[in-house]
Amino acid sequence: MKRDSLNFIDLFAGAGGLSEGFMQRGFNPIAHIEMNTYAAMTLETRAIYYYFKKIQRLDIYYEYERGNITREQLMANTPHEVLQTVINEEMSSKTIKGIFAHIDEIMAQDGVENVDVIIGGPPCQAYSLVGRAQSSHMEKPMEVDPRNELYKMYTQFLYKYHPRMFVFENVAGITTARNGEAFRNLQRQLKRVGYEIEPHELNAKDFGVLQNRKRMVIVGWLKGTNYHYPQFTNMRVNARVNDVLSDLPVLERGQKLDTYRDDVEMSDYLTRFMIRNRHDVLTHHVCRPNKERDVQIYRRTIELWNDNHKRLNYNDLPDELKTHRNRSSFVDRFKVVEGDMEFCHTVLAHLSKDGHHFIHPDIEQCRSISVREAARLQSFPDNYFFEGPRTAQFVQIGNAVPPLMAKGIAEQIQIILEV
Hints:
Helix content: 25-40%
CATH architecture of the domain at 7-234 and 401-418: 3-Layer(aba) Sandwich
Largest sheet: 7 strands, mixed
Structural class: alpha/beta
CATH superfamily of the domain at 7-234 and 401-418: Vaccinia Virus protein VP39
CATH class of the domain at 7-234 and 401-418: Alpha Beta
Radius of gyration: 22 Å
Strand order of the largest sheet: 3-2-1-4-5-7-6
């Protein structure tokens, strides 16, 4: 950790998309707190990547990606102080004092006296429009979901560490959850601990991400300072979604490959935003197997998209291909990733359940997207390794803040704090 750099704590860190953007801008992580074991392992692996990059020994990290050394061997070559920045704990009234003690110990060891920024956002399912639609069929509706109160953990961190600024990210639906009462409570809590705040809906596509992904981003700053909400200029890139797909090898359904295509050059987009470089090892390019019935539906879906961007309506399928009883909602449950467009539709954690909403645009492949393809749509670099089984990897990717969007936010925060 560089003591003269801006330092941050990442709460509800997930796989680290928000954190990655800040680290790419030179911010130093004091700690990442994440309750999910697989996501915490991913955070550890990413911390290891940055350590080996710093000491110019990324060859060791690449050996891990190739499968030539185990994770235990990789960790054995990593100092404890690198690994201890990841705190795999659920935040609650019972655990928060222990988490504070852990962070205080890290700060004391590194000679860090102040936290500059706190970033993160509580799990968003309780606020999301999809989550609320599903809630009506649940025994325990979202209105009483304990995740609705996790923002109070966030405010306790603000009260304890008094960062100069914070970034609170969540789904756009947070503003209307519980008739807006949840959002009003959140704003009151954030102001109560000494902050001016401003919420704005931001879209990942305005930060260079090839994805239409709306998020509510609340930025706060200590009262009495001259700080303000960052000023963002919409970034338009000369690229299409296929620019992050075309250099990856053609996959059979259920197949996994680990070698880039040698007949397709890296696109300018991949190079410009450092998503792939010539040293990278291809990992996670694996897709799920599909039933023959789904393959037939996928083919129809792609053919319709290729015919002037038409979308498949589930009710228009032949009866022998229909298996869902619900014919009135989610009639667009089969959807092609818009390869020939400037951005695709929102990547979701639902990818872990099936890939019907994320069908590869190449009709010859006629499959759902791979883990690596999902990661690229989220702007994760190819050297980002996701731990856990394929299902867990899809969840981590779908829940993440796109690193390229996070980097754009971090850049403006940095400008404000360094004036």
